[in-house]
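Take a record:
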Amino acid sequence: MMSLIADRILKPDADASDPQVRSLVGKRCGMIGIFANILLFLGKIIIGTVSGSVSITADAMNNLADASSSVVTLLGFRLAEMPADERHPFGHARFEYLSGLAVAAMIVVIGVELGQSSFEKILHPQQVVFSGALVVVLLLSIAVKLGLAGINGHLGKSIDSQTLLAAAADSRNDCISTGAVLASAVFAHLTQLQIDGWVGLAVAIFILYSGAELAKETISPLLGESADPELQKQIVHELKAEKKILGFHDMMVHDYGPGQRFASVHVEMDMKEDPLYCHSIIDDVERRVLERHNIHLVIHYDPVVTDDEELNEMRREVRLVLESIDERILFHDFRMVRGDTHTNLIFDMSLPADQMGREKQIKQQLDTAINLKAKTTYYTVITFESMAFNTAQIWEEE
């Protein structure tokens, strides 16, 4: 049933990466969330007031917060649609992330308020009036929330939206909290033990935890996360499909919101190739990546020497030594400058996070190893960098 509704919102043949399609799906999910949560709020607030149950009232306020968060989600997707302008040349797609952060803040505020009211109920417990209507409303709430979780989860995965996936997780959390409220009402009716305030407090803590987790998930892309491995693999696939590209490195992906991703990468090509021909190949790759994956890619061309036997031999030697130190270490832009007394090996080296700080020791080990049997004296001139921008090199040999 939920998959049928989801298919009505997002047609199976629709392009889920299209910003307009994503926006339409997000806005429709927002409107469904507003309507469903307002109905649940009205039903629970009436039952909570009549029965005197603070936990049901707390759950009603949670639904009101969810309705408000759906409004914010709707506005977030709507604002993210705005085209780029002079002050924001990369567009406004990050409004989707900001809307998620606003939702998290609202959830935390509601959790604090519910915790205070529940604590008062613990200090001054009151009899909860049990009724069939109470059970029906809470069971209906669980069913609706399961439906919302299914719809938002399915569509969130389809359009790769953290906002909708967060809404799905929130709906699943609501099923748990509402189930706890129902269990407490039944327990109190059967045993005459008033645990309503304690359950309300537990629900409030659960809401606070959910809000904090949601805030963490939405703040992370705003701060700037490392590129999604799947996104990197898409770019790598396009690079490897071009036979004239011998290698690549220094891939950086900048995320300005869904549908607004910009990337840059260095590619190595044989220096004997015609530069105009290489430029044409690079243009074609950039165009394909934009058309197929909606990623604005800029490629830097690095000409490399391929027919120097000594250079190739020393590149192999450096690779073997580095693998013996730590097989995760990568290097690129390998060049050789010969002199009268020695030869310089110039290259960049990418280090894993736990090897940063050991640059001097690694260089000494490498220098000692490559000069152990060599007839020529080699000096290494190394530019050290973090592995963060070169993890895509790992897939080059797969």
Observations:
- The beta strands are 247-255, 261-270, 295-304, 330-338, 343-351, 378-386.
